Amino acid sequence: MIHRMQPDPLPLEGITVVAVEQAVAAPFATRQLADLGARVVKVERIDGGDFARGYDTAAQGLASHFVWCNRGKESVALDLKDPRGLDVVRRLVADADVFVQNLAQGAAARLGLDAATLCAEHPRLIAVDISGYGPSGPYAGKRAYDMLVQCEAGLVSVTGTPEQPVKAGIPAADIAAAMYAFSGVLAALVRRGTTGRGGPVEVSMLDALAEWMGHPLHHAMHDGTPPARTGLAHAVIVPYDAYSTADGGHVLLSVQNDREWRRLAQQVVGRPETADDPRFATNAARVAHRERVDALVGEALGKLGADEAVARLEAAGIACARLRDVTEVAEHPQLAARNRWRDVGSPAGPLRALLPPITLPGGAEARMGSVPRLGEHTGVVLRALGMTDADVAELRRDGVVR
What we know:
By secondary structure, the chain is of the alpha/beta class. The protein is built from 17 helices and eleven strands. The strands form three sheets. A six-stranded parallel β-sheet has the order 3-2-1-4-5-6, sandwiched between helices.
């Protein structure tokens, strides 16, 4: 008789997370936990919920940010200004493993939901405070939105063209904070497994994004000058840029050493004599003669279609990529070949979503649950706390829950 091996369970099965969250930073962090098997109870305002629900209507009438960051969660809508609503959160936290919040600076402390307070009351609890600039210092009370933190962290100063700095096209500060909150929770869970104690976790958007600024930051601190903005080009490697092709496409290539330049010159550019030309033979020389190098490469690729250009570059062993727009990424052949897309449920029906990047071979697939309707799970969660139907009806009638 053949016995089939059962997949390993998801690593966070049995972990309960309570999140008083909004926008991107905390919701994206807790979505990672939900994907890995945790139960995530999302506490939202009764008057509209997480304000990211209203950012747009691009996902079949739902907000694209909200769909991205909130699948697999239970939505409970509460008025935290009412003592009865706040009591519900406290009762949820008492049985939780993790609590996450990213309310405006000082708001959690006023409600008694800051990490220090909760961890003092519940020694096994891991409580995460996500803020814009941290709990102290002259910026502690400043409003912090993604683009503002991108500016404060210097990301905008190194992104764009020589003439025009630009913000990143994704909420980089929010994502950075989310991923450090996610990894901070995992680290704290490991520590709790050995010590039995939880504890506070602090993450700020500025700290997170400043860490991601590692290369330009160290370049500026130690060399005295920040790297120049160079658009798609690399500041210190040539050729490393996007080049137009005959069919209107763009192909980006990168030459990392002089051997690769020799192959590019001989097999793609069709100018083998430039391999030994002192103006081009070394990277330092190519940087000094950037415009001429780009002209040589651009002229060669401009005679080819994008597919042919990629084929020739790959045959020569040159790293390259198509410059794709977002619509093209949604149809990327590599994502399709590796079966990375799934459908998740939502109030608007099934929505296409990517599997999370963490793959655990031999284990259960990520739990990609549905995107919740505002207050969809309020009744179920309150009854699980011991409330009767009459109790829930009274709270709804008084506007404490939705």
